[in-house]
Specification:
5-stranded antiparallel sheet; alpha+beta; 12 strands
Length: 306
């Protein structure tokens, strides 16, 4: 690929595919094998953002070249605070999925003479433990549709979803992907921790375009804003269990016939997270109210059984 880029940058006229095959080492002699390899190389150059131009070469042949003016980046000039922010951003991803890309970006800046200042009192971290993150991030980057199984809140079995992912967003420590849901024919948001199994690409790169003016952060915020506000959960907890719940709950009088149990109440706002947390206590916790939280816990427990 590097030899191909150098070749196409060095010419002032369009080169035919045959001329490129003769000039660039590594291409096979067989015509069909060369055509397949050259097509893959062209796609990869375009995915990398390299401006590959096509034009007339000879009478009827298609030619290729790379405009040096369009290829070369302008001089990089950053203020001290801007360079410090970039260094801080790289530290965010140091132990996460984009660590290699962040390190490579800083290396390129240093090669251009830009040094990022260290900020000793700030140590940011972004966790990307969700198994779906790497594939979903690549799908967003390459504009590739995906298919995956999703365990919605309150459902006993996961559903297969087909999505054109527009962006991946972290909100309050949780990762979400927003995009066009082909099954629903409308924008949707999915929490990555609820994606089960592998995320599979469902088409080639650049299979869709993100609508102009789309801000996935706003989409996630609007989706999150549709969730219920802070409410009160009422549960029963078996004696000698649920100490993690008792630390931030208020004990209230129980009903007759609840010997061996304590009745607790506490505020919550996110049904799916709270349902998973309460379900982790198994038979030692029973949700009494509200009904949607109770149903979500039952759904989580049934999903484990199946």
């Amino acid at each position: 690929l590097l030899s191909l880029v150098v070749c196409l940058l060095s010419t002032r006229r369009y080169l035919t595919a045959e001329q490129i095959r003769q000039a660039v080492a590594g291409y096979p002699e067989q015509s069909e094998a060369f055509k397949r390899m050259f097509e893959r190389d062209k796609d990869e150059l375009r995915e990398l953002g390299i401006p590959l131009e096509t034009g007339q070469a000879g009478d009827d042949d298609t030619g290729y070249k790379i405009s040096r003016h369009d290829y070369e980046l302008p001089e990089i000039t950053l203020e001290t605070d801007e360079a410090a922010v970039l260094g801080l951003a790289a530290r965010v991803w140091r132990r996460a999925e984009l660590a290699d890309a962040a390190a490579g970006g800083l290396l390129k800046l240093r090669a251009a003479g830009v040094e990022s200042e260290d900020i000793p009192d700030i140590e940011p971290r972004v966790r990307t433990d969700d198994a779906a993150f790497p594939a979903m991030w690549r799908a967003v980057r390459d504009h590739r549709p995906v298919v995956f199984s999703y365990q919605a809140v309150g459902r006993a079995t996961p559903q297969q979803r087909h999505l054109e992912p527009w962006g991946v967003v972290c909100r309050y420590g949780r990762w979400y992907v927003g995009g066009h849901d082909r099954d629903r024919g409308a924008p949707r948001v999915f929490r990555l921790s609820r994606v089960l199994g592998p995320v599979t690409f469902d088409g080639p790169p650049r299979s869709f375009t993100v609508p102009a003016g789309t801000d996935v952060r706003d989409l996630v915020r609007s989706w999150d804003g549709q969730q219920p506000q802070r409410r009160t959960a009422v549960i029963r907890v078996r004696h000698g269990a649920g100490y993690g719940l008792r630390r931030w709950a208020r004990q209230v009088p129980g009903a007759p016939g609840e010997a061996g149990w304590d009745r607790l109440e506490f505020p919550f706002s996110e049904v799916d997270w709270m349902a998973g947390h309460l379900a982790s206590f198994g038979p030692d916790v029973v949700v009494l109210d509200p009904p949607d939280l109770r149903e979500a816990v039952i759904g989580s427990l049934k999903a484990v059984l199946t």
